[in-house]
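Batch manifest, entry 17 of 40.
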Amino acid sequence: MEYEWMESLKRASSEEIASYIPKLLDAVKNDKYEERALEILLQYPTESTVFIEEALLSGDFILQKILLQKLVPHLPFYSKMVVANAVEQIALIPGELQQLAQTALQSFEP
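Output type: structure tokens
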């Protein structure tokens, strides 16, 4: 993914962005593009929430870790409610992600 492509997504319509969300989630794991990809996902929370939930349930440790640390706590409340079950499931499994999930769940509180 190129910088220009990601910058163009910042100006995309919500209908256009949906087809690119899986690629953006892949870009989250790339240090070079992580911050830009997260910024775009946060810009389109309604369109990306279902994909974020799937990624949290995917078992991809690296992606789960980044999403729990850097994306989930910053989602709007309604998006957090959509991913809540996935985050709660992760919080029940002992390991490194458990603490991250518990911390993310604290961001759900008003």
